[in-house]
Amino acid sequence: MTDDNQVSETVETGITEGGRSGAFRDVLSKNHARRGKPPVHFADLTDDERIAKAKELGLPKFRVRQLANHYYGHFDADAGYFTDFPAGKRDEVAREFFPTLIREVTRQVADDGQTIKTLWELFDGSKIESVLMRYPNRTTLCISSQVGCGMGCPFCATGQLGLTRNMSTGEILEQVRIAAAMMERGEVAGGPGRLSNVVFMGMGEPMGNYRAIVSAVRQISAMPPEGFGISARNITVSTVGVVPGIRRLAQEGMPVRLAVSLHAPNNALRDELVPMNRRFNVDEVLDAAHDYYLASKRRVSIEYALMRGINDQEIHARQLANRLNHYGDNWAHVNPIPLNPIEGSKWTASKPEDERRFLEILHNAGITATLRDTRGQDIDGACGQLAAKTNNA
Ligand code: SF4
């Protein structure tokens, strides 16, 4: 692949053209009308653009650094109360740099207050969600990068919703800032603490919104006042297997972890479960994932939703182990996760004994694998379900 433009275009638009090759499905939501763009936020601007905008407001350059200190250093976007700013300028700064991009609609709390799932409304009425999970040694935020998802995986609630639109960098980053502020202020059970990990595993296919997610990763990981100071090593970008996106991410030089949602070890099955497989098949996806491991030195996560009688049998575990061992030892970590089924769907969760057997076969083949934590299952399940229900309401 040498055509940079082609790579860039493929990554940027992801899957939004209704199947460029005709080999995969693009599900556009009925909500997919022209909605306009989200208001421009401080996080959407380069430093030069911030300085230029400040100048328009009659503010000198050093004020931009002050704003960055508030935003990244103190997780504070409430410019109306920035007492180090001239009182007469605060409202204007709030309006021009910090428009409200996400508004809390509902909050569901589980696991004794240590899991908080929030449904957010965006400027155009779209709904997305994020989940904050506190553990003894870390606190992880799972964020959304698109409204809905166009990948059309038939077992997934978000897949049924279709793709409405990409989120802006500001909309993505605001999920992180608010969670970091909640942790700092002690609003999550367990007292004040620090948001330590961010995973792009909420709604959407991150590689379908490549430019925005890379900008978000840079701003999450840079040290204040350029970013929130969460180590790139503690950030995970997931993908259903958009190969050009994986390859491009490998060249960014950021040690983020890659998670690949494989869900099936062979093409016949994966074609059915993950329509994107008809565009980039299992071999191409695993080749790219292994190359990512070589480039980043970060072990790749293989996500595998276990579905009863479909992909959870011994033969599937053996095929998966063979595929992974083909590339050598210790480069991938498998996370089987029991499927949280959509009501009325033919795809349902595996039997516990099948889950155990699946793990055992992987372990016996020398593959590291842990049944993924299903935090928050008691507050309405897996990725996308809460938003899917509300958007359809
Ligand atoms: S499983 Fe992931 S990639 Fe597939 S439709 Fe759902 S959110 Fe999109």
Automatic annotation (TrEMBL):
Main localization of the protein described in the UniProt heading: cytoplasm
E.C. numbers: 2.1.1.192
Binding site for S-adenosyl-L-methionine: 204-205, 238, 261-263, 340
Keyword annotations of the record: 4Fe-4S, Cytoplasm, Disulfide bond, Iron, Iron-sulfur, Metal-binding, Methyltransferase, rRNA processing, S-adenosyl-L-methionine, Transferase, tRNA processing
Pfam families assigned: Radical_SAM
CDD domains in UniProt: Radical_SAM
Cofactor note: Binds 1 [4Fe-4S] cluster. The cluster is coordinated with 3 cysteines and an exchangeable S-adenosyl-L-methionine.
Additional free-text comment from the UniProt record: Reaction proceeds by a ping-pong mechanism involving intermediate methylation of a conserved cysteine residue.
Family affiliation: Belongs to the radical SAM superfamily. RlmN family.
Protein's UniProt name: Probable dual-specificity RNA methyltransferase RlmN
UniProt source species: Bifidobacterium animalis subsp. lactis (strain AD011)
Gene that specifies this protein: rlmN
